[in-house]
Design goal:
Layout (H helix, E strand, L loop, with lengths): L20 H13 L4 H7 L4 H13 L3 E4 L2 E4 L2
Antiparallel strand pairs: 1-2
Protein name: MarR family transcriptional regulator
Organism: Natronoglomus mannanivorans
Length: about 80
C-alpha cells in the first residue's frame, strides 16, 4: 500500500463558509497533504465515494478547492 507523506507546513484556518463536518474534514485533509485524489479521500477518511464527490463539488463551487490533473487541492 502506498503511504501518503504528510506535509510539515502549518494548516491554515478553516474558511468561515464551511459548515458541514465532512466539508471541514475533506478541506483540512487536502490542505494538510497538499492535495489528494478521490480514491485517497475515500480510503483515508473512510467516506463513501459519492459523499467525497458531493463534498468536493460543493467545495469547488465555493472556490475553495480546484482539480489539478487527478488531484484536488485547496485554493489559498
Amino acid at each position: 500500500m502506498m503511504q501518503q507523506q504528510l506535509s510539515s507546513k502549518q494548516v491554515t484556518p478553516l474558511p468561515d463558509t464551511l459548515c458541514s463536518p465532512q466539508a471541514k474534514l475533506v478541506y483540512l485533509y487536502l490542505d494538510a497533504t497538499d492535495g489528494a485524489t478521490v480514491d485517497d479521500l475515500n480510503r483515508t477518511l473512510a467516506m463513501k465515494k459519492i459523499d467525497v464527490l458531493s463534498v468536493l463539488n460543493s467545495l469547488s463551487s465555493s472556490d475553495l478547492v480546484e482539480k489539478t490533473d487527478d488531484q484536488y487541492v485547496t485554493i489559498n
